[in-house]
Amino acid sequence: MRLGWLGKFMDNKLLLGASGSPRVYMSKFDKYTNLFAEQGDFDTPPMFGVGMSYKLNDKTTVALDISRTFYSNIAAIGNPGPNLPGDPRGPFPVSQAENALGADNGLGFGWEDQTVYKLGVAYQYDPKWTFRGGWNYGESPIPEETEVLFNIVAPATTQHHLTLGASYQLSDMLEVSASYMHAFRYEQYGPTYIGVSGEIGMAQNAFGMNLGVNF
Prior knowledge:
The chain is mainly β. 6% of the residues lie in helices and 47% in strands. Strands 1-2-3-4-5-6-7-8-9 form a nine-stranded antiparallel β-sheet, with no helix packed on it. Strand 8 and strand 9 form a beta hairpin. The chain is elongated. The relative contact order is 0.13.
């Protein structure tokens, strides 16, 4: 379930909004019962966000969104990974029986809750063309002091994202859009329980096309 609110002010020049979603319960990953905590359970974490947009003039609109995602509420994502070298409890947080892969309190990726900031601009060049650009920042949810090892398979390290897009109105009914996203490379370094330092990093590019139909 997702709930939201949208308010219009100043002759519709200023829009304020808020939305939120509780935990989304997903069916378990049967092939990952011995990897993800809670026997393969991997739900979508709860989140909430607020946003605003302001129409500077007839052609230009700016928007700002802030959202918070609660990764720590999902065991497979938020549970800590293996202990660091020298921990008297060994490579697992408490005991292998309680914290083995796939157990109810099994090892996870150790992600922290994340706040994401988004800034966007839309410019309507003429009745047919609209151009858009945006920037997105969210600090990596991976605490590199303790969680580098397990996140080799989930290196969600990127922090800064740039987006570009455009729409073209083919007719009163049809609109075609294209978009591009670049996530700038970001690397994290930290100790691992096997006694050596690890490095994880990622950069991403994404392209999209969309066809919209007005009824």
